[in-house]
Amino acid sequence: MSRPTFRRRIGGAITALVTPFRDGVFDSVDMMAHIEWQLLSGIDGLLVCSLTGEGPTLTEAERIRAIEICIELSEDKVPVIVATGTNDTKTTLEETIQAQRLGADAAFVTVPYYSKPTQKGIIHHFEQLAAQAELPIIVHNQPSHTAIDLAPATVARLSEIRGIIGIADSGCDISRVDLWRPFLPERFSLFTSNDASALGFTAAGGHGCFSNAANIVPRLFQSMQHSAAGGNVGAARSIDERLQPLFGALARENEPATVKHALSLARDIEAEVRLPLVGVGTETAAAIQAAITPFQLDGSGRFASRNTYRLGL
């Protein structure tokens, strides 16, 4: 399957999609409804099979079907990015080539975790991927999960590798935009995967956010990102202030569980997660309920029905 390349269009508000389960089984119906709502809400891109989507727990068949659904429903309207990173270069390459064959627009590849490679090992890992896969690669730098942070010299080297088009940083250090930008080529994009710092990152010159919260408030998150990118910082800040309590509530525990809990209150998506993840605790559940209450649209205490797609969010 061949699709247009979206290299210059990956940016703005990109939803790191959850993967719905029901009674232990991948729920393709809920996933289709969720993606359709995201697209109707104006989201700029879709990331599938990431940690938020519980990618490591998906079977091969579930993973393929999740990617296929994303690609089929996007209909080339927005880029579909597939998380393919593992702690093994061979497996990561296989997953990346599979995503390429299915028609993805880019691969979202974490710095290898658990084995803690050196900076040299990280560079060789991504060199191998870029040399053997044709899919554009976005490097995900997530030290809280990998126990490794990219050194500036490593960032500079990665930016020189043909096929690597950007880095998504998970931290709150907005100064990295200014630190990294001087030695990066113009074609190279910088993203964040941290909702709480998304506004500051974009205002500092970043290109967008891979967002967990956009699962719940896609239109508001997209409006914040577009306002910030367009220089309307006042409007963006106003939205960000409204969203910060939600960002904080989602970050209280692991975000697949917190995001799904919010969606179970708002969009009829099951809160079910797969072990070793478990559902949220009582205090976190109360914090999430309080955080989403200002965004509820009807008297039932829920967002608009997934079947009506009222887009106040």
UniProtKB/TrEMBL annotation:
<keyword id="KW-0220">Diaminopimelate biosynthesis</keyword>
<dbReference type="InterPro" id="IPR013785">
    <property type="entry name" value="Aldolase_TIM"/>
</dbReference>
<dbReference type="GO" id="GO:0008840">
    <property type="term" value="F:4-hydroxy-tetrahydrodipicolinate synthase activity"/>
</dbReference>
<feature type="site" description="Part of a proton relay during catalysis">
    <location>
        <position position="114"/>
    </location>
</feature>
<dbReference type="InterPro" id="IPR005263">
    <property type="entry name" value="DapA"/>
</dbReference>
<comment type="pathway">
    <text>Amino-acid biosynthesis; L-lysine biosynthesis via DAP pathway; (S)-tetrahydrodipicolinate from L-aspartate: step 3/4.</text>
</comment>
<comment type="subunit">
    <text>Homotetramer; dimer of dimers.</text>
</comment>
<dbReference type="GO" id="GO:0019877">
    <property type="term" value="P:diaminopimelate biosynthetic process"/>
</dbReference>
<protein>
    <recommendedName>
        <fullName>4-hydroxy-tetrahydrodipicolinate synthase</fullName>
        <ecNumber>4.3.3.7</ecNumber>
    </recommendedName>
</protein>
<dbReference type="InterPro" id="IPR002220">
    <property type="entry name" value="DapA-like"/>
</dbReference>
<keyword id="KW-0028">Amino-acid biosynthesis</keyword>
<keyword id="KW-0963">Cytoplasm</keyword>
<comment type="similarity">
    <text>Belongs to the DapA family.</text>
</comment>
<keyword id="KW-0457">Lysine biosynthesis</keyword>
<keyword id="KW-0456">Lyase</keyword>
<keyword id="KW-0704">Schiff base</keyword>
<comment type="function">
    <text>Catalyzes the condensation of (S)-aspartate-beta-semialdehyde [(S)-ASA] and pyruvate to 4-hydroxy-tetrahydrodipicolinate (HTPA).</text>
</comment>
<dbReference type="GO" id="GO:0005737">
    <property type="term" value="C:cytoplasm"/>
</dbReference>
<dbReference type="GO" id="GO:0009089">
    <property type="term" value="P:lysine biosynthetic process via diaminopimelate"/>
</dbReference>
<feature type="binding site">
    <location>
        <position position="52"/>
    </location>
    <ligand>
        <name>pyruvate</name>
    </ligand>
</feature>
<dbReference type="Pfam" id="PF00701">
    <property type="entry name" value="DHDPS"/>
</dbReference>
